[in-house]
């Protein structure tokens, strides 16, 4: 790439995906700046952490600070379908059962950003990025603090995809509108153990989990665009006082046609989104950030052909999306299966198929 640059990599978004990419890039000696529009730490939903994330956190050097002994642990989830109830464990090995974590996302995200800071990344908190554009062989990021030139920009802005949108990226929508409503209740429900409960509903699903002592989270999704969306707090939690207002978020399945291209990589939810029942949100965020960092190192430090590396990353994102979305489609209840033409996946070439 031609032209002088201020940084090798600019990361827009300070969540797990962006921070993981920044950590790996800094370890390789690349100059990195992170922009986060909200002052850190900030509230985030998504406390459930799959056991597989522990390996990635150890590789990033943040397992001890992000996974404290006080966190709620669980070895699987209860599945309720109609009148039936079964327990689905994560698995086990010679050391015993695998266990997930219920993390405090504010502290979890903070641990990752602090690690990037310790490694020498520049972190600009509460700083909005106004525009990202290409200028010859470099990427130009216009922010509230001024203008920066970099070799690569990483879009870690989540579902907004603000960087890729400005660069002309296209999103493939792979489901009907899916709305998730969620909230938190203070206190403990006597019927709830540390194991979350996942319940299928005629038009979606419900999740209840004790995320930390004295705090219970509920999530209710609506997969049917014709079904009225209402506040549907689980009956078992109605007696507990509300600790945060009920919120709604669009979790429709979508994936970028090209999660990487000339001068950019999209990571985490900016690259692909599935509804939270995939249980891979944070895991995908960390792994995509780390994979993008490896690809960037190949381009900037090993002189690999950019088009070859970005195609590899695009195929990797699409394969993971296809695998998870195919599993979710199999798990849909009978009513949704009759409408399975709504749901599709993206093949590695970027085309969509039913």
Report on the architecture of this protein.
This protein is an alpha+beta fold and 354 residues long. Helix content is 26%, strand content 33%. It contains 8 helices and 25 strands. It has helices at residues 16-27, 53-60, 63-66, 105-118, 162-166, 281-300, 306-331, 334-337, and strands spanning 7-12, 32-36, 48-49, 72-74, 76-81, 84-89, 92-93, 96-97, 100-102, 122-125, 129-135, 138-143, 146-155, 171-173, 179-186, 197-201, 204-212, 215-222, 242-250, 254-256, 260-261, 264-266, 272-273, 345-346, 352-353. The strands form 6 sheets. Strands 1, 2, 10, 11, 12, 13, 21 and 22 form an 8-stranded mixed beta sheet that branches. A 7-stranded mixed beta sheet has the order 6-5-16-17-18-15-19, with no helix packed on it. A 3-stranded antiparallel beta sheet has the order 3-9-4. Helix 1 packs parallel to helix 6 and helix 6 packs antiparallel against helix 7 (306-331). It starts with 6 loop residues before the first strand and ends with a strand. Residues 348-354 have low confidence and may be disordered.
What's a concise summary of this model?
The protein has 354 residues and is α+β, with helices and mostly antiparallel strands.
